[in-house]
Amino acid sequence: MRTERGGRSKAHSLITFIGVSVLSGALAAGLAIPFAGFAGQGSEQVAKSVQDLPRELVVDPVAVRSRILASDGSLIATLYEQNRIPVPLSRISPIMRRAIVAIEDSRFYDHGALDAKGTIRAMVRNQTEGEVQQGGSSITQQYVKLSLVEKAKTAEERQRATAVTYERKLTELRYAIAIESQLSKDEILERYLNLVNFGDGAYGVQAAAQHYFRTTADKLTLPQAAMLAGLVKNPTGYDPTNDLARAKARRDVVLKRMLELKVISLRQANAAVKTAVINLKRVLPVPNGCASSRYPFYCEYVVSKLLDNPALGVTVKDRDHYLKTGGLLIRTSIDPRIQRAAQKSITAHSKSTDTAIAAITIVQPGSGLVKAMVQSKPYGNGRNHTNYNYNVEKSYAGGFGGFQNGSTMKAFTIAAAIQKGVPLNYRINSPQQINLSGKRFRTCSGWTRDPDYTPQNSTRGGNLTMVDAARFSTNTYFLQLSQRVGLCPIARVATKLGMYNAQTLHPLDQVISMTLGVGYVTPLMLSNAYATFAARGKYCKPLVVASVRDKAGKYIDTPQIDCNQALSPQVADGVNRVLSAVMEPGGTGGRLNFGNWDLAGKTGTIQDNLAVWYAGYAPNLAGAAVVADANLPYTNLMYRHTLDGRDISDPTGSGTAGPLWQTAMEGALKGMPLRHFKAPPRKMLGAPQPADQNGGPDASGNGRR
Fold first, then answer.
1. How far apart are CA 439 and CA 452, in angstroms?
2. Angle between helices 94-104 and 185-195 (to 10 degrees)
3. Beta strand 622-628 with 611-617: parallel, antiparallel or unpaired?
4. CB 199: neighbour CB atoms within 10 A?
5. Confidence band (pLDDT; 50, 70, 90) for 169?
6. HSE-CB of 578 using CA atoms within 13 angstroms
7. Span 648-674, average pLDDT
8. What is the mean pLDDT of the chain?
9. Apex CA 120: angle with CA 115 and CA 121, to 5°?
């Protein structure tokens, strides 16, 4: 018993000394506290560690949520680790300030860094009860603790910042003294109210006001302010969405304390107590991340692009942290009006329960801005949902990796042929089937051949010009044209226009059937490449992030519109003329024409009907739509596959993917200025050619040079 009494005597002496030291300013002056005579070796270590602390607390910027916006400024998604919206004290209602002071530190404006009376009272109770149970911390000390927790980068640092020890308390006190010497009481209160956790994922008073009451911090009423002030002590335990009765009891404790301090009148207190704590039906959800976005697939693609940007951090982990804590304002390229048009098309022509998938991307020519990105399967893990983005390449979050693009590839053969001087009326005898077994095709690195290759047409053949062959999508014409032009020029055009294998990220394979679209590409890739033709040869890298600003409003370096003249304007004009014929009466896309727009496009159906495409454009917008089997192994769309709830009996680029493209583009172009393609030079049309002209450009290696 003597030992116990001696221990308590030492504890009382220690407490008394700390109180006197604080009140006399000794601790503030940085003098050592001679604990050794009071509490032994352990206290010496505590004293030393406290004495060694810096006299100034470097406070990290508070974690602030970032927002992703559409091109019109509407919200797409919110990203955060802590849902926080900092506001100045002038935008926090006076009653909220008084409520938090009343319940947390009623003498806040009267004492320094420490409320000595409250602290000594708490320490005496803790010591007599044998452990640290009561804090007695001032608002300034609480602010220091919260700041230290925010600064903690490791589990060990977080443990130290929250440890129930006198060492931690004295650490907070040392820093609190420094804070009080640097900031006014109002500045400390402002920082505190913006930092503290108000439960249910709301950090800071502004986010809490929005979340619980759908209001702002400057408009909080007395009962609302009292409820929020009561949450600080135990944000989870007093969270009204967890326990409404407990939240009311705690709120009423705050109201009683405010009445005791004469902050409010009895009439105000009685009226507030009778008020419902919260309307749970009006609690505003706090969406976080792309999963809760209205455009989840597009949002994930945006985030992937941001994580690629070294201006946001050295490592991907750093960038991700900054995205969720930096209060960034991210403006994107997506146009909600065009997105709605594309979504309306998907809704009109497909169902989420279909076994086939449908996807559309729309791009603005001359800028590369991605204006819409939609698909038929909703985002998620449930039945008939997916996390795959069928519009983008495999290297990005959720990217599926594309599909073989079929005859849409012929556009690049057309461009390469025009570059080499082949006239638009260049004729080739194109039978229904052709034997190319063993025929040599020149590549960028030599020659290639197929020992057994006898392709055929799915449409008409004959002695056709380039325009006619595009109109009918005649395979045997374009295979012979690609042989004469060479695969290397076609590959170079495709590469310049942003085409590559979306699964391997390598250049498209230079094989004999290259012009028939055997490489895996995406709707984004194809729509942007076709946008180059619409922009008269100006290729622009696809762009989804238009700008990024930090919370101070300063712009952060991010890729901007990046364009180059990939094709001469005249070559692009020639391609536009050829592909316009596809959408004229009798062409494979003739039924997809609408309005007075100049339109050009190309169908695409791959072998065994595994995917069908329509890619097309006006001078204002370019889009690509695909319908495909997205399961591995891929299967023929004709067998056991549905679109819009019906069996796909005859999958074609024009009849299956075409209507998706048409409805989307017609809606997207509505209200835009009517623009026209420029006619190609007369000499590009060539002289009339009644027969197959075998003397044209040739790279076959079969006798012609």
1. 10
2. 90
3. antiparallel
4. 23
5. confident
6. 36
7. 96
8. 88
9. 100
Separation CA 652–CA 582 (nearest Å) = 14
Pairwise CA distance, residues 400 & 403, whole Å: 9
Judged by average pLDDT, the poorest of 14-28, 283-297, 358-372, 414-428 is 14-28
Would you place residue 285 in the very low, low, confident or very high pLDDT band (cuts 50, 70, 90)? confident
Please give the structure tokens belonging to residue 477: 């014409």
Find how far residue 157's CA is from the centre of its chain: 31
Residue 40 has pLDDT above 50, yes or no: no
CA distances to 365, 631, 648 from 523, rounded to whole Å, are: 15, 17, 21
H or E segment and range at residue 203? strand 202-203
Q: How many CA atoms lie within 13 A of 335 on its CB side?
A: 15
Residue 31 has pLDDT above 50, yes or no: no
User: At residue 500, does pLDDT exceed 60?
Assistant: yes
Note whether 518 and 509 are within 8 A (CB): yes
Contact 360, 472 (CB under 8 A): no
Q: What Å distances lie between residue 641 and 458, 628, 631, 648, CA to CA?
A: 21, 9, 11, 6
Written in H, E and C, the secondary structure of 110-138 is: CCCCCCHHHHHHHHHHHHHCCCCCCCCCC
Distances (CA, A) of 307 to 210, 312, 396, 559: 29, 8, 10, 12
Q: What is the pLDDT of residue 132?
A: 38
Q: How far is CA 636 from the centre of its chain?
A: 34
Largest CA distance in the chain: 122
Q: Rounded to the nearest 5°, which phi and psi values hold at 212? A: -85, -35
The two tokens of residue 78 are 């919110």
Provide the residue type at 318 as one letter.
D
**Block residue for tokens 């007599």:** 128
Per-residue tokens: 632: 């591995």
Pairing between β-strand 83-84 and β-strand 75-79 as defined by DSSP bridges: unpaired
d(CA 431, CA 518): 22
Sequence-distant (≥ 6) Cβ neighbours of residue 3 within 8 angstroms: none
As a whole number, mean pLDDT of residues 443-447 equals 97
Full DSSP string of 64-81: B-EEEE-TTS-EEEEE-S
Pairing of strands 75-79, 66-69: antiparallel
Q: What is the pLDDT of residue 35?
A: 36
Instruction: Report how far residue 605's alpha carbon sits from residue 648's, in angstroms, rounded to the nearest whole number.
Output: 14
pLDDT for 32 equals: 36
d(CA 241, CA 476): 68
Taking 60 as the threshold, does the pLDDT of residue 11 lie above it?
no
The continuous run of DSSP H or E covering 616 comes out as strand 611-617
DSSP character string of 624-681? EEEEE--SSS---TTSS-EETTEE-SS--IIIIIHHHHHHHHHHHHTTSPP--PPPPP
1, with CB counted inside 10 A (0-12, 13-18, 19+), is: exposed
Quickly list DSSP for 359-404: EEEEE-TTT-BEEEEEESSPBSSSTT-BS-BTTS-TTSTTB---EE
Write the DSSP string, 534-573. Answer: HTTTEEE--B-EEEEE-TTSPBPP-----EEE-S-HHHHH
